[in-house]
């Protein structure tokens, strides 16, 4: 009979229907890699919605990079400092020497140490806060005339980290260890308070804070 597939072929109408359904499903479904990426984005969005989650701890290099970035950009933004050496630098090594000279002329060793202390104190204070995806800290705009891009800046800071003294490395590692301890303690408290809310052991209208649960304002 026309239109009927012989049973000897092993292909039945039910099998054809299943194949067609599978084809339609595959056509509408995103690729596996894209699907995984979307799941990652969804998980990130869920984390960002929780504004009271403790901030993740910074590493020693995180602290160092932030301090060095501010020092370098501040030095390059000063009109009293010539940039002829940096403009003439043709490789990373010469750029690093030029930046080191800039920093040496811009302030004394004691002033640099005082800056490191004040800037890292500020970073530690900010770490005590909570995530807020709608509020990003604005960085100060410095007129560097494009004399140094981020790639060169990152390479210079990385090189300066490798050349940092033992005492300097210890300073930043101590900061990182303290921030890790802060994060562990804050995370324990956060999870404990969140559990109280989820189990109904806290008032209905509550928000999770570092110091416990607190009733939300109407």
UniProtKB/TrEMBL annotation:
Coiled coil: none annotated. It comes from the Eukaryota. The keyword DNA-binding applies. Keywords: DNA-binding. GO terms for molecular function: DNA binding. Gene3D superfamilies: High mobility group box domain. The keyword DNA-binding applies. PANTHER family: HIGH MOBILITY GROUP PROTEIN DSP1, HMG BOX DOMAIN-CONTAINING PROTEIN. This is HMG box domain-containing protein.
